[in-house]
Amino acid sequence: MALLPQRFAPEQCEAVAREVLAAHRGQPGALLPILHDIQDRLGAVPPELLPLIAEDLCLSRAEVHGVVSFYHDFRATPPGRQVLKLCQAEACQSMGVKALTAELEEKLGLPLGETREDGSLSFEPVYCLGNCACAPSVMLNGELHGRVDAEEVLALLAEQEAQA
């Protein structure tokens, strides 16, 4: 996994947004591709860019905010160097993900939905990884793992950290 800078200066964010907007100018339905491109380049879609995006696309800020807040993969701040997504959907719930969540929160010292202050790990809820037959499931840095317990998840994290 590539390491993303944790913060960009506001002028860098705006410059990136203007480049992306120019690249998609005139494209029908450009909002989602624009948001994805900005997030790919900055690691997030900073809220201060929403008015710029809205103005360029002749949309209201509320429309742009609605799209960003609706899709769970868009984020306002860059993720940690490692991203652990833990499925919270029904199949995983039936296989004990609530207890797994509590155990991981305790062992990681990090609540679900948060990123460590040092930027080393983001621990995120997701609501389906498409791996229901192998619940509970996690995705670590884009790699799917099923039928996991806390010890396995911690071992996966340690292995990824050692490779970084």
Write the layout of secondary structure elements.
Layout: H1 10-24, H2 31-42, H3 50-57, H4 61-70, E1 82-87, H5 90-94, H6 97-108, E2 114-115, E3 121-126, E4 138-140, E5 143-145, H7 150-163
Parallel strand pairs: 1-3
Antiparallel strand pairs: 1-4, 2-3, 4-5
Helix pairs in contact: 1-2, 3-4
Describe this structure in words.
By secondary structure, this protein is an alpha+beta fold. The chain has two domains: 10-70; 82-163, Glutaredoxin. Helix content is 46%, strand content 12%. The protein is built from seven helices and five strands, in the order H-H-H-H-E-H-H-E-E-E-E-H. Residues 1-6 have low confidence and may be disordered. Its cofactor is [2Fe-2S] cluster. This is NADH-quinone oxidoreductase subunit E. Keywords: 2Fe-2S, Iron, Iron-sulfur, Metal-binding.
